[in-house]
Design a protein that fits this description.
The protein has about 180 residues and is α/β, with parallel strands linked by helices. The protein has eight helices and five strands, in the order βαβαααβαβααβα. The structure holds shikimate-3-phosphate.
Length: about 180
């Protein structure tokens, strides 16, 4: 792990439905950190939901907003940041997160993902009757980006509570072994 960085936050990346928000909230509470979610920040800024942004402004506009928000997050401290599933497809976003955060990727199989996302149509990219093929192809395309995380954690056979524990262990190891950034 390249550690000539000042790690003062923890960023969770990974595909839709892997449990980033649930794990993020648990980890933030246990570390006594703040919690931020890039999708929530975008919705608050636009005053509309993600499906509305996709429908009215398009995916390209959504990706611009993700980029803006990611750069703004470079100033936060002691925060767990949960990111939208496609955020790190832009290498500049990954680079930005790595300036200040330990980047942990939660990884799951297409089957687990489909079970978890269920029938909720809050995710425009999976808004189809049988999303399994879309999940498989998107996951494959995004794999090289997810693999650039500092820590890659398979969540298929772990409860989200156990996943949270492992994330905390990884974060504490880094925080203990490397000077935490005060700036
Ligand atoms: C997206 C994932 C979603 C949200 C948007 C696009 C993606 O976030 O950002 O619907 O491209 O994978 P979650 O991963 O929190 O569902």
């Amino acid at each position: 792990m390249q550690m000539n960085r000042k790690i003062r936050n923890l960023a969770l990346i990974g595909f839709m439905g892997v449990g980033k928000s649930t794990v993020g909230r648990i980890v933030a509470e246990r570390l006594g950190f703040g919690y931020m979610d890039t999708d929530e920040l975008i919705e608050a800024r636009c005053g509309k939901t993600i499906p509305c942004i996709f429908a009215e402004d398009g995916e390209e506009r959504f990706r611009e907003l993700e980029y803006e928000i990611t750069l703004e997050l470079e100033t936060v401290s002691d925060t767990v940041i949960s990111t939208g599933g496609g955020l790190v497809v832009n290498p500049e976003n990954m680079e930005s997160l790595k300036k200040h955060a330990l980047v942990v990727c939660l990884w799951a199989s297409p089957r687990t993902i489909c079970k978890r996302v269920g029938k909720k149509n809050t995710r425009p990219l999976l808004d189809e009757a049988e999303p399994i093929n879309k999940v498989k192809s998107l996951l494959e395309a995004r794999k090289p980006h997810y693999k650039k995380a500092d820590v890659l954690l398979n969540v298929d056979r772990r409860s989200l509570s156990r996943v949270s524990q492992v994330v905390i262990q990884n974060f504490k190891m880094v925080a203990d072994n490397h000077e935490r950034g005060d700036s």
